[in-house]
Amino acid sequence: MFRFRRLAALVLTGALLSGLGTVQAAEPALLPESAALSSGDSWPLPVDFDSLSYDTEHVQDFLSDCEDFQALLDSSASITTISTACMALYVDYLSLYTEYSVCSVHYYRDPASYEADYLAFTFLFTRAGQAYQDAVHGMFRSDSFTDAYAAADGDLEELEELLDDYLDESITDEQLDLMDQESALVAGYWNALTAEYTATLPGSDRTWTREETESDPDLSDEDYWTLLSALAQARNAAAGPYLLELSSLRREIARSSGYDSVLDYYYETYYGRDYGREESEALFSYVKEHIVPVYSAYAAYYAAVCAGEEALNRYDGQGQAGKLAAVGPVIGQIASELGELFDYMVESNLCDIERSDTKLDVGFTISLPSYRSAFLFDSPQGGYYDISTLIHEFGHFSAYCAAPSVNFSYDTAETHSQGLEALSLRYADQLFGEAGDAFRGADLYALLHAVVDGCLYGEFQVEFFDMEDPTLQDVNRLFRTLAQEYGYVYATDSDEAYDWVEVNHTFESPFYYISYATSALSALDLFLTSQDDYQGAVDTYLNLIRLSDESGYRETMARAGFPDVFQEETVSGVGGELSGYLYTDLYGLYDLEDHWALPEIGALVSAGLIGGTGDGFQPSVPVSRAALCTILYRAEGQPQPDAESSFSDVAADAWYADAASWAAESGITTGTGGGFSPDVPLTRESLALLLYRYAGEPSHSGGLSSFSDADTVSPWASQAVAWAVEQGILLGSDGRLNPTGGASRAEAAVMLFRFFSQAAGEAAA
User: Fold this and answer.
1) Are strands 207-208 and 199-200 parallel, antiparallel or unpaired?
2) Cα(376)–Cα(391) distance, rounded to whole angstroms?
3) How is the chain split among helix, strand and coil, in percent rounded to 5?
4) Which helix (DSSP H) or strand (DSSP E) does residue 138 occupy?
5) Is 166 in contact with 6 (CB distance < 8 Å)?
6) What is the pLDDT of residues 313-350, one digit of tens each?
7) Which end of the chain is more exposed for a tag (fewer CB within 10 A), N or C?
8) Candidate from 248-257, 512-521, 589-598, 753-762 with smallest mean pLDDT
9) Averaged over 241-259, what is the pLDDT?
10) Of 10, 15, 23, whose CA–CA distance to 150 is shortest?
11) 106, 350, 358, 654 from 114: Cα distances, Å
């Protein structure tokens, strides 16, 4: 738990007192930009992971050493002897922690072979942590220590407060038993999650696994979604009940530590957060308003550009060596110190990103504290994601090796990883060639996904622990309701969602997921900063690692120069700037930067209805009949016309040929004198007429008498213009409609946006 991670500071205090020096808390200072991460002691020691092993007998030895230390406290030993022995115990505890990490890596590589070892070590390591805590607690409570502390001008009241904060609540036998039950339930969840499930279709005896469903080209869309839903429901039915049991158990654990709120217990004791429920709920609200729409826009870009980009799969045929060889130079270009750490990781066998059928489907980095080092683990999925994950996890690895303390908050830790992802996007072309922009879009989409999912699962867990005796169906309904608030759309009509059980953090680390949201927002802010000042962004990131100590996330980020993500202006600013980057940089519509119509144009671009001209968007260029009819044709789903165009001025291979034929068949346009006049600019009234016909010439009660130039509206367009004014599609300026004035591409986009928004509102009603 979090308080165990704070013992090092207390032990070091005791070591200083062995020389009877004055103990003072040192505040980390901002280092010069040129200072290396490797300055001081924050640099890893040589190690070869392949030579490391673990032995549960060492836990028993450590427990005996703790008993010997307690006996030493009861003797007349000097403070120097006691503090020296305590430091030795601390070093042994780090060694035990390292062995536990080694055992954990083996377990995640092959859970079937190492589950018994892992559970046994977890059981014993929990008790070792408690024994170690009791030993340190006893030292600081001993008369010899308090006398020496006072003699060294130490503040006894300050010491008492420190002890109250971190050491007074010893774990009871009851709590240890509850934790053992928790570990067993989590192991049961993993077994349920990783089991193979099958499903059948109505009227069929054949069964499908998930892999078979994903790879069967003969399945209809309806059958595909039916099978996926059935498979998800089967997994949910097996794994979901473990959360219900864990909920009751964790309430008991919280109460046994004096907490009425499970959220407060985990936020404070496990994660050491310097924010609480109020700030979290405010963030959930800000993200729904300012980030979810941007996330949806990036999702559209991902579907249109990234999902089918074969070049993003260029590393699929390469194993660990190939991926490391590709990413290593990028890390070194970001910062030479990071490059040194990457080489150290590779040379020391401190990573495993090879594909294996026995691995659990997770990625993580785990500390090896005896060596001020870490181990990077991933079960590769294929595609660009393997590269992103390697960079992400190396951000964790770097912080474990180079930060002044490993006791940084979880939110800060996730900023280490996601921040490095953000900085790596400068080198996307180096990693993926011509698909560089696709990789940038995919990774930014993933970071936005982390924000949205972090808040979704964060709010889900807040609401879940507020529920009284929920059923699994209640939990499924809760998640679906919240998911829809965060913009997710389901392909089935059920009021339940089943796939939430696949997020293991909900079972293993309750309330953790919000850390992905806070940190991803900080990382996205870092990315936006890097667009104008890349070296400044790198310096901010390296400074974050240098300053990553025991302080809370908000305090650490403020000292490193990041804005506060719990302020609405920060969240809205990130959303707005990312929206602009999507259209001006990724879509290449460079001439829309700061354009007044960007929100409306962007929505149509994301919907696939409108695009650029090959030279930006050209918002001031008049919109043509061909362009407008093509937009409406796309909105209709691009149905195949019954016949080729009869217009004399439409070539069969013209880019707008099908749209022109469809528009004529649908009665939207009759052309001009036997021709389509594709390049003729549309006036405001002719644009209104095309929309009016597309809408089915609906009845209306609108009038034009309030406009001073109403008499200039052409008779053939009067009904359409009156309807467009009534619907808020066509607006005047200074009391004038200017019906015969030209409509630019930007103005047309705004009118189309208003039209489609109005239609969507009517459909929803």
Assistant:
1) antiparallel
2) 10
3) 65, 5, 30
4) helix 111-141
5) yes
6) 999 989 999 999 999 999 999 999 999 999 999 999 99
7) C
8) 753-762
9) 93
10) 23
11) 7, 19, 11, 64
Q: If residue 126 lies in a helix (H) or strand (E), which one and from where to where?
A: helix 111-141
282 pLDDT higher than 80: yes
Structure tokens at 182: 């928790």
CA distance 135 to 292: 49
545 membership: H or E segment, kind and range: helix 534-547
- Cα–Cα distance for residue pair 590/376, rounded to 1 Å: 39
Alpha-helix residue ranges (DSSP H) falling in 75-110: 79-109
Instruction: Report the candidate in 589, 592, 651, 638 with the shortest Cα–Cα distance to residue 614.
Output: 589
Q: What angle do CA 110, 112, 116 make, to 5 degrees?
A: 105
Measured over the CA atoms of residue 271, residue 418, residue 537 and residue 533, the dihedral's sign is: negative
Instruction: With beta carbons less than 8 A apart as the criterion, state whether 14 and 78 touch.
Output: no
Could you read off the pLDDT of 601-659 as tens digits, one per residue?
Answer: 998 998 899 988 888 999 999 999 999 999 999 999 999 988 777 788 999 899 999 99
Question: Who's near 163: CB < 8 A, 6+ residues apart?
Answer: 137, 140, 141
Say how many C-beta atoms besides its own lie within 10 A of residue 161's C-beta. Answer: 11
Predicted TM-score (pTM) of the model is: 0.83
**CA dist., res. 678 & res. 649, Å (int):** 8
CA distance 358 to 113: 9
CA–CA separation, 293 and 299 (whole Å): 10
- Which letter does DSSP use for residue 585 in this model? I
Which residue carries 């069964």 as its tokens?
207
Distance between CA 398 and CA 544 in Å, rounded? 11
The CATH code that applies to domain 257-574 is 1.10.1370.30
Q: Any idea where the domains of the chain sit in the sequence? A: 2-169, 257-574, 600-764
Higher pLDDT, 151 or 743: 743
> Is 722:658 a contact under the CB 8 Å cutoff?
no
The reported pLDDT for the residue numbered 16 is 40
* CA distance to 104, 237, 315, 437, 745, per residue, from 387 (Å): 23, 34, 8, 15, 39
